[in-house]
């Protein structure tokens, strides 16, 4: 099969690789759509020690099953592989599994390839009315779905206003999830002017520049889809007393949080990692039911042109929240 291989900082090679061999309980999938994630960009820039070169990146995948019980089905892929037996898995928090693995991180190669082997339990069948491009968005949107669910569990019925920091696919997925889960008043902050226009015109979102945010404005829940020092500082400043910060982004490890204000105002900080298997299924079903919008905000590129796609994202030349690569 052909695959796009990360070979070092800002270097990708489109090359021939051996086809994956499914193990017991796994299916072979022909990848038809795979998204470029922010974590793929971190690896591409050499900023992620968990993803050493050479490695096939990519974990936002959808395609057609070629083997096993679901042969012929169109599926979206939950890329998080868990044991199913540890205390975290048994309690429904399988995203915290002590032996969790995710494709695009050793020992599992990713989905920037023609074929992918995955446990059958990680596959969700996709209805005919949905394209594989749309189905591949289940993974990034599920991250926001999970964070919003956790935040709402803390706030109960008191959550009415939300702020989302970052207008990429994680931030947009969180904004759509907030609306789908009952919080209609959502403001997005995005520094890239062209992307703000895209979010306004194509995604029906209220997107503003960082300096347009009223310093005194307070929100019930703030979702940080970026995870930089500056966005954490914004989150600390704009969460209301008793509010929640749901932190998804992995941009920087430290800095930004106003711990004194968070303590004095009893602001809850929730670190959120991916999603549970149930969150993934619930998010996918919401997509299938049309509760997350048209899901038409992607830009398509060929996998063979993947190196240029990464370079364009790096250079700020991409306005859509998501590039989908087609093997």
From TrEMBL:
InterPro entries: ADH-like_C, ADH-like_N, GroES-like_sf, NAD(P)-bd_dom_sf, Zn_alcohol_dh. Residues 24-128 form the Alcohol dehydrogenase-like N-terminal domain. One of its GO terms (molecular function) is oxidoreductase activity. The keyword Oxidoreductase applies. Keywords: Oxidoreductase. It is an enzyme of class 1 (oxidoreductase). SUPFAM superfamilies: GroES-like, NAD(P)-binding Rossmann-fold domains. Residues 169-286 form the Alcohol dehydrogenase-like C-terminal domain. The keyword Electron transport does not apply. Its EC number is 1.1.1.-. This is L-galactonate-5-dehydrogenase. It comes from Roseovarius mucosus.
